[in-house]
Fold this sequence. Notes:
By secondary structure, the first copy, chain A, is α+β, with helices and mostly antiparallel strands. Chain A has 16 helices and 18 strands.
Amino acid sequence: xxxxxxxxxxVDRFEVMAPPALDTIDMPQPxxxxxxxxxxxxxxxxxxxxxxxxxxxxxxxxxxxxxxDFRRAPDVVAYPRTEDEVRALIDxxxxxxxxxxxxxxxxxxxxxxxxxxxxxxxGVVTIDLWHLxxxxxxxRASRSARFQAGIYGPDLERQLKAHGLTLRHYPxxxxxxxxxxxxxxxxxxxxASLGTYIDDYVESIRMVSPAGTSESxxxxxxxxxxxxDRFVMGTEGAVGIITEAWIRVLDRxxxxxxxxxTFPTYAEGAEAVRAIAQAGLNPSNCRLIDAREAMLTGSxxxxxxxxxxxxxxxxxxxDAQMELTVALxxxxxxxxxxxxxxxDGEGGRTVAGQWRNAFIRxxxxxxxxxxxxxxxxxxETAVCWRGxxxxxxxxxxxxxxxxxxxxxxxxxxxxxxxxxxxxxxxxYFTFHCLPDRARMDEQCMEIKVAAxxxxxxxxxxxxxxxxxGRLHMPWYERQRPxxxxxAFAAAKKALDPAGIMNPGVIIAAAGRGA
Amino acid sequence: xxxxxxxxxxVDRFEVMAPPALDTIDMPQPxxxxxxxxxxxxxxxxxxxxxxxxxxxxxxxxxxxxxxDFRRAPDVVAYPRTEDEVRALIDxxxxxxxxxxxxxxxxxxxxxxxxxxxxxxxGVVTIDLWHLxxxxxxxRASRSARFQAGIYGPDLERQLKAHGLTLRHYPxxxxxxxxxxxxxxxxxxxxASLGTYIDDYVESIRMVSPAGTSESxxxxxxxxxxxxDRFVMGTEGAVGIITEAWIRVLDRxxxxxxxxxTFPTYAEGAEAVRAIAQAGLNPSNCRLIDAREAMLTGSxxxxxxxxxxxxxxxxxxxDAQMELTVALxxxxxxxxxxxxxxxDGEGGRTVAGQWRNAFIRxxxxxxxxxxxxxxxxxxETAVCWRGxxxxxxxxxxxxxxxxxxxxxxxxxxxxxxxxxxxxxxxxYFTFHCLPDRARMDEQCMEIKVAAxxxxxxxxxxxxxxxxxGRLHMPWYERQRPxxxxxAFAAAKKALDPAGIMNPGVIIAAAGRGA
Lengths: 514, 514
């Protein structure tokens, strides 16, 4: 793994930085000393808990952590055991003018859980939903389940498995993120097409806001006004804390087919993916990975882009669908890779298996890369097919140029599709570079700004599924129609009159108490 | 057709009421005499136009029209030719304190276009988008098209057909409704599964509100905050007038399969449909019609419920899918009907063809039935599978009892599924009765209240796709979480500060100017 990076950056050895010790980090005293007796048992103020909740999981976060900068740690970390305690914590924070940061798995890569709320608050209370992790009810006839929102991905799947069911929602953060976090941030998961977002699996949401508790009607579909759930999904904690949800679940998959196809060029691969999406073939996996990313992840030799395809069903064989999909690939110069095995087993030595392993391990490698001074970051978007070629070209060029300009030497920029739609793909970009070790986060951010400017200039959304957080706010606000922004701000004020909920996310913090 | 109703009601002959003549109807003088010179050419105040825009297309509307009651006609009917004129009309109405009713095809069956706005307004201006009917742009690569919102269904399909494309959105109102109306009311169309709502085909919306004009970013998908489009869809004109939209379109269908299956009981048919939905087979048509409705529509002999099935694709044969679907039906006692023909051709003599004809002609028959004193009304919902049997039983019983109680003699109540989901069906109910001719609308409403109470008590939504309008408001408000209702009201106030847009729909009119 590291050998690749020695080659890429022509470096013989990366000096390894040690992470700072807990007692050496720069963390001010907590500002909220007087915790009400009823809440004392669930509130923590020790350095460990405050450090653990000071950042999300982006490279920017990682770089700041390595620098020992914990000046923005929350003052209190609360672990409510019940919804009533969530309500009591929000009431307390509102009463003392403290900001509230809802915290699921803390895997945000966009500053969604970072307590950067400005100076207008008495302090910050981070509410970690760790204990709200129960399966509350299964409705087998309707293939639905009700969970508390703090449940982590593996625990949720484990509990469903006991009933022969699954949600099959696998964001890359799966092991370190929660159902409530997925819903609040509109996470995208396993499926490359059809139900890509968690949104499509949500039946009903229960949410505690400063203004009261909401629970939407649980029905399979409703045309009664704008959907309350669709309004809550994507608010990222800015209007309340999701405490429970009914979700649609699935029978476990019994039929799978997996193939890998290579293409002469990325453009031809993209045309094949467009044809697949527009034919309604709806593969569960359809990841078009450019030649360099295939090489860097050890999936392929780097000579050609690869398309990792999967079809699956709980009820019927999918080989015929796979044949149709592969046939479409051939129309655009695609050549199926001849190999044994299904390719999606754990540790599979197939191209798809190697890719899968790299995908799952990627976030864990990052810690080691940061320690070695390697900046590894990602950004993602979605764009209509008409605009894809231009977006791909200008974004790759802009980020390569920014890396050279900012760090003084070339890096790598690669692209894959994570999700596909009949009207366009969701391209996902990864870049690596060697920033100045004293200014890793500043230099990374400078490159990201160039990336975001290029993506939005080319008509892509500022985020397909990483959410808005604090990081994407300037671009998000420019892309959101101004009257709709005003409507959302008014809606937030109705639910959170004092503006204490995750300030600065989705709604600019300037609105606070105004 | 009428012979059936002679039998059902044991009546030899229905006396036919004549519709009232235009010069005899009860319509007050228009209250908005001073139309600004710049708008005079597009504003009409004659009785014909005002009468034409006084009602939607429910039986309640029809009964009031037959009574000659046009006391609530709009004062002005405006036909803007451009978006600038839409804006000028809204500005003028705001300036003089008049209410604005956006009007597409006027096919609302829930009072969505009825100028019943209370006494707080200087008058009512109905804005008919008839002239905003152009195809503006086709993006073939992305399979998308941009239309003005006032375009009617047939015109939209005709224009797409010239490009080898289709939207395939066929609500029962198709011929008499518009793209903008579909989007504003979250219409449901052709597809029994997958993209059932127009929502799933909307890429971007342009809307003129009193507070400004919004245009959402056109991308295939975005995880940036709550979706602006999902917030606009379902507002039913209460926050602005939709003037344009980008929509996803499809290649034309080349492969179809159609079958009809009968079941011993409706419950067994429902179990088969549940299995089909949960297997992910996603039929384009999956209408489970109870034995009596099959008889009344001339589709079948009334001895058994029928399930009309369709699969279709633009790209690959669907016979194998149909075989899987029919095999699931057999597991639940289903027996395929042996018959020649595809069943879905125009005027087809197959069971599915007869059903299709009755479906298309139904709304046209209604005029003749009202003239004969026959009340024909519908209501619809969606409910999770777990609750379906109870909902079906209690709703059928409640409406049959209400008809007997209110009209003094039995009527008919029948049920079909219009759309299906893995977690539940969308049952659609039709009832016929013979009300007192002097009180047709009051008696119909009394029965509908019993129906709505029963539906919502059994956990069904007040509407799956007929929208909220003015008719469903009391039940809608009870089903919507109160904090979310407050958030929507605040959002409306941001977009429509004077509360002039379609008052009383979605947001209670009491909020006006408060």
